[in-house]
Amino acid sequence: MESQATNQAAGGSAAPHKSPPYMLIWLVLFVLTLAEVGVAFLSHIPKNILILILLALAVWKAALVAMYYMHLKFEPRKLWLLAISPLPLAVILVVIVLAEGW
Amino acid sequence: MERGPSSFGVYNMKLGMWVFLLSEVMFFTGLIGAYIILRFAQPDHFALPGQVLNVPLTALNTFFLICSSVTMVKAFAAIELGDQKGLQRWLLATAIIGMIFVGIQVVEYTVLSHEGFVPIADLYQAHGRQGGHEVLGGPLYGATFYTMTGFHGTHVSIGVACLWFTYFKARRGGYSAANFGGVENMGLYWHFVDLVWIILFTIVYLI
Description:
Number of helices of chain B: 5
Largest sheet of chain B: none
Structural class of chain B: mainly alpha
Strand content of chain B: under 5%
Radius of gyration of chain A: 18 Å
Number of domains of chain A: 2
CATH architecture of chain B: Up-down Bundle
CATH topology of chain B: Four Helix Bundle (Hemerythrin (Met), subunit A)
Radius of gyration of chain B: 20 Å
CATH class of chain B: Mainly Alpha
CATH superfamily of chain B: Cytochrome c oxidase, subunit III, four-helix bundle
Helix content of chain A: 55-70%
Oligomer: heterodimer
Helix content of chain B: over 70%
Distance between the termini of chain B: 46 Å
Number of helices of chain A: 4
Strand content of chain A: under 5%
Structural class of chain A: mainly alpha
Distance between the termini of chain A: 51 Å
């Protein structure tokens, strides 16, 4: 069965908003990817700092995809909260697994 | 099937897709968590970035996946405006780029396995891309690598199949400015696959 996904009819899609600059976001993602590869191989940064920088760049890219390409930025607040709900669980999972390892 | 908005303010199919994606977050978190703990526990089983894995090729593949995300969102933007031709064109581009991603991953797997980078303890003999005599890393490296990238590649392959379905449905006029739920949910899944790859690329290939 089809789902109706108009902004008003089903009340289901993201709130009416100006179309995000998709190509600009693509360019930023491309530049960030280049930066990641460059930082990983061309720098003499201490390993721990390097890992933090690479993770920060990855999270930045992932956030751009989620916020603009998945339109999370324009979704109702409840859905936004639902979408980020597994993040603390994911952190807890990784931390507990790491703690077990030590 | 109820068509109205759910208590989360979105239509049910979209809410269902989001809940499914959240379960996928936990699934990949489990894999990534296992990788991290194994890497910390058995550092001898892992090699430095670029020693075994072909990072430039995978960076190119990452670029393709990012491109497919923008074509997917362009397809969605097109059907929001009722642009049928635009929808079909961008969906076709997304499906083709997705296939290129899978194809490159197959090539990567083929080359790596020929170089001895396999997830089997008795057969593991990865000497790295420089062709030295020393075996770099161990079978844990191969096992975790193929598990994580393999599951992701499977997700991409399923996504490509769904993209072709969506494309052919679009060609039959199955979507409109008043009915684009299928395209939107297809996009959510595809962007999620891109998002997961962004994290995996960093953790598996660069760190």
